[in-house]
Design goal:
3-stranded antiparallel beta sheet, disordered C terminus, Chorismate lyase, Arc Repressor Mutant, subunit A, elongated
Length: 278
């Protein structure tokens, strides 16, 4: 990870400046304060600031020149990938069409641990396990690990999984996904994930775990996904509903029109009570 990470103050300055750059607060072409100014601002030495700036330069976020100082050279993706969390199933196939996938591994493993429990399968059953990286415009943004029961996964090949969305393959196998349970939190990049997503080891990532179920309530897919937060966002659109004084927030579900492949907005019947209601 580099000796510079051993310096807590250098890492702190690096993270603050990096966040300003990636968030767009310091946009492309913006000139950063001098080393002396940054040192005074953060209460650290010039050596500490220099180490932080050196790491930002290594990541091609800034450019340092003696004659003109330090300026931002990072350009955010013009079309970052986003997903509507309230319309998760409607968005899966569309995302598969918009992005490219690289299959890193494909094998069969015994069902065990949290995955086996989530899918409600016995320990003696096999699960097809795949690891894929999705990219948009040539830039990787997600690291996806999926487990599918063997009885379903035998209907598609390794080559098909590397070229077609998994949801398409599940539907071809006769699986009708009725619902999904999803949890979103935060994670850190392991060495393997960092290499695949082109980020530093230990970089913060969006972590998503989703279990999909068919009409009979059978677990048909377990997904563990890690996303680069600078290239992927999760959104939800809300509407107020209910009687005056007892209103709650209701998610607006976006469904994909099969003919035009455009979002179509409908209001879900289910409500989410998110307090406060203001």
């Amino acid at each position: 990870m580099g000796d510079w990470l051993g310096e807590a103050k250098a890492k702190q300055v690096y993270l603050v400046l990096r966040d300003r750059i990636l968030s767009g607060t310091a946009g492309f072409g913006a000139k950063l304060p001098t080393e002396n100014e940054l040192a005074e601002l953060h209460g650290v030495s010039r050596v500490t600031v220099r180490r932080a700036l050196g790491e930002l330069a290594r990541e091609r976020l800034i450019e340092r020149r003696r004659s003109s100082g330090t300026r931002v050279i990072y350009r955010p993706s013009p079309s970052p990938v986003s997903a509507d969390v309230s319309g998760v199933l409607a968005n899966l196939a569309e995302m598969g069409r918009r992005t490219k996938v690289k299959l890193l591994s494909f094998d069969y493993v015994p069902a065990q641990g949290a995955v086996a429990h989530a899918l409600s399968v016995a320990a003696d059953q096999l699960l097809q396990r795949s690891v894929r990286v999705r990219s948009v415009d040539g830039s990787p943004f997600s690291y996806l690990t999926t487990h599918v029961p063997e009885s379903i996964s035998v209907t598609f090949t390794k080559q098909e999984l590397g070229s077609r969305p998994l949801l398409e393959l599940l539907e071809r196998a006769g699986v009708q996904i009725e619902s999904a349970r999803q949890r979103i939190s935060a994670g850190l990049a392991t060495p393997e994930v960092a290499a695949a997503l082109n980020v530093r080891i230990g970089s913060p990532l969006i972590e998503l775990v989703r279990v999909s179920f068919d009409q009979r309530g059978r677990g048909v897919e377990h997904l563990h996904a890690l996303y680069r937060p600078d290239r992927y966002a999760i959104e939800i659109e809300l509407m107020r509903s209910g009687a005056t004084g007892t209103k709650v927030w209701s998610p607006v579900v976006r469904k994909i029109d099969a003919k035009q492949r455009l979002p179509r907005v409908t209001n879900t019947d289910r409500s989410i009570d998110l307090t406060p209601t203001r």
